[in-house]
Amino acid sequence: MAKSTNAFTCTACGASHKKWAGRCDACGAWNTIVEEAPLSQGPGRGLGAHKGRAVPLSSLATSEAPPPRHLSGMDELDRVLGGGLVPGSAVLIGGDPGIGKSTLLLQGAAAFARRGLNAVYISGEEASAQVRMRAQRLGLADAPVRLGAETNLRDILTTLDTERPDLAIIDSVQTLWSDQVEAAPGSVAQVRAAAHELVTFAKRKGVAIFLVGHVTKDGQIAGPRVVEHMVDTVIYFEGERGHQFRILRSVKNRFGPADEIGVFEMTGSGLAEVANPSALFLSERGQPVPGSAVFAGIEGTRPVLTEVQALVAPSTLASPRRTVVGLDSGRVSTILAVLEARCGIPFAGLDVFLNVAGGMRVNEPAADLAIAGALLSAREDSALPPEAVLFGEISLSGALRPVAQAENRLKEAQKLGFSQAILPDSQKVEGAGGMSIQRIADLTGFAGEVFGAG
Ligand SMILES: Nc1ncnc2c1ncn2[C@@H]1O[C@H](COP(=O)(O)OP(=O)(O)O)[C@@H](O)[C@H]1O
Ligand SMILES: [Mg+2]
Ligand SMILES: [Zn+2]
Hints:
This protein is α/β, with parallel strands linked by helices and 454 residues long. Helix content is 24%, strand content 24%. Bound molecules: adenosine-5'-diphosphate (ADP), magnesium ion and zinc ion.
């Protein structure tokens, strides 16, 4: 039997490697590569070893309507699922330990169950009594969710096959083990095998499955990324330590838009939905301060305003600090380079701290202008007009490029009491809805007109 050559796997991203290395060159994580027992290649596994069964093929035409989606009534959850739960779909919910995944899914299961769905919650991490205590604290003790505590994959599949629930929650995929796989629970091989079997079961039997996956920091336990490709929908539950709110974000969805977000607040009695996230993210704003810029963003199908905050201070370091939280640091470096090269505004010798207020994460290129605005405002020690929002993409030439959904951004800004928008010259706006608009051609113009800099 030929020895498998790819016996090393990254537990963070699942990439295969021919030999061990300290750093995974696929995802950049350190100390995440572990040796895995190669998949069995015994007789009968290879192609041609035995004759396969002919799979029945069918046409593309269908007379069936798509299956109805189930709504939980938790709007923030339903939206991130793409407009409710698709029967027989497999959903992965990843997130840091302690962020609130079990809480969210217990609340979700209870909400679906109260609307008549047959919901089963299998906990591999906590004893049933602990889950019951949580249910009591959340005021869900009377919800018709059925609870099991088990980690044996075979037993879980048998249970689900007998019960045939509409939806099953498996908390977490890292605790499951299959006797068919010779590896420890939590290893890449076990996590993949368990996820694969559960996803296959979901499709065959029409049972929607939620898999919980902890994001892991060390290489001992496989992270949720190793099963992302198997499931229909990948959702991450995020939040900053010390902040009350949590963001549910779909990063992949076969049944709806990706990048949709749902916003929750962690309270003593569980996760409360936040229907108007912009108001929450901006609630800490007071007097106009240098270094602050309000970005009118779009998350999925929904406009969300966030505040980009910058602090710029003389550095004593040979290579000054660039500390970026909640924004893409590569993007920030590019904007700093454009400011320096195209506008002649250097940040050399200056430490730069940049973050999004409240722990929100912003990935849109449309945030470029707000990032530049916060940086310039901090550097020039001059506040932007407090009634203004910004959006626009910055190209390497320093030109500003238009972005999608300008009207929705403006509408949300106006709803929250803003009266002015700074945006690219080339941006088409069909109806500004009473907002006063300041058009900017390029970054040099922005620095000059708004800050008198450059
Ligand atoms: N008794 C409690 N009172 C208030 N909040 C609690 C209580 N127990 C847990 N929590 C909150 O719930 C969080 C844990 O959520 P949990 O759903 O178990 O996270 P995960 O499943 O992602 O590890 C804790 O970080 C804490 O904020
Ligand atoms: Mg948990
Ligand atoms: Zn990796």
